[in-house]
User: What shape does this take?
Amino acid sequence: MKTFELHDSQDKITAKAVEASPAKLVPAGSVLMVVRSGILAHTFPVAIARTAVTLNQDMKAITPKGGLSSEFLAYQLRAQESTILKSCTKSGTTVASVETKQLQSLPFWVPSAELQTRIVEELDKQLSRLEATVTTLQGIQTKLKQARASILKAAVEGRLVETEAELASKSDGNYITAKDQLRKHLASRRDKYSAKQRFRVRSSEYKEPVRPNMDGTLFRIPEGWEVATVDQLADGTERCLTDGPFGSNLKTSHYQESGPRVIRLQNIGDGIFRDERAHISVDHFNTLSKHSVTGGDIVIASLGEVLPRSCILPKEIGPAIVKADCIRFSPSNQAFNVSYINYALNSRPVRRLVASQIHGVGRPRIGLAGIRNICIPLPPYDEQCRIVAEIVRRFSVLDQVEAIVQNSLTRCGMLRQAILKRAFEERLMPAALRAISAGTKTVFND
Assistant: This one.
């Protein structure tokens, strides 16, 4: 439902399945609408089916009769988008939906076939120009996304800034390598664990973190770099790598207006935190405290099309827990630059390496064990900091361009609605559009 005309679909159904099920065959020329979806919070998708189709429960179709043009009906529905979203939306439901009876009661103008054709032709002409502009702007957005990916790729390959080895070669030649740094961090983890065991009645043997699998080719790393697993980069504290509660321990019905936060997949953007809010009670939070996270932690998505995908929780997040399919990763911020680790997790080279560990076609997933095994190219600490500073500098330029493009797209959306509104307010065409009671019948199909 992302285009005005639909000629095909991703999913198919056989004719035999249609005959043996409640599914109805909607004829070509029908106008399709989304009537149940989160997108209805701001958009009412409308499209024309150019071939016979069937619909799922989130869709409805109008088959126009009595000389009413499909294009004219679709444009008029788009013109009434704000009215439909305000007056036809059901209240008190978890997912936004449109009330069919209220939609059926909307008034429609049905002028002569000649005037319908003239209006559609004029709208096609004006909106096609606008869509060409939108396509250009969306192309710029794609290039900006590609530019970000290229910057991160260069960062984890040692091509974004001068390496510590290169800088050292110009001076005394001395610097702390990533290998030495990692060895020191792992020794510190082991010592802290041993110190805690002295005060326990039953001590357990220290479990070494997962090492990189060096059997295959990982990364071509520069001099002074090392390859480390997520498990090795963790700070070694209890539950420094943990997932969220599953099943009935945390359900949507537990959410409320305020209280400790629940960090969900919706919060994990492509390297950035998205402030989508969900809360639970303090008492419920206390029962799930082993899944708690704090500001500065990295949260990794274990489910979704793009894996791994991670973000850093803001310092002001307050009491919070992770939901199922979200992994809390607490790296050592004393030994490593957390921002660098987050950027690396979202880079193409790391994602390409992780692809072999992802399971599931419809719902791609990587388990906690797989996340522990994720390998990251690790530069020396000072180089990590310089890489992060350069990424931030370059991303800030892209952010400015992206803001301009997004503002232009918003204006295009407003202009589209203004054109449609004028078309049905007797301003677009020289001849006035008259509201008549033609008794046109329409057929609604689920």
Summary: Confidence is low (pLDDT under 50) at residues 430-444. The chain has 13 helices and 14 strands. The radius of gyration is 28 Å. The first helix runs from residue 15 to 19.
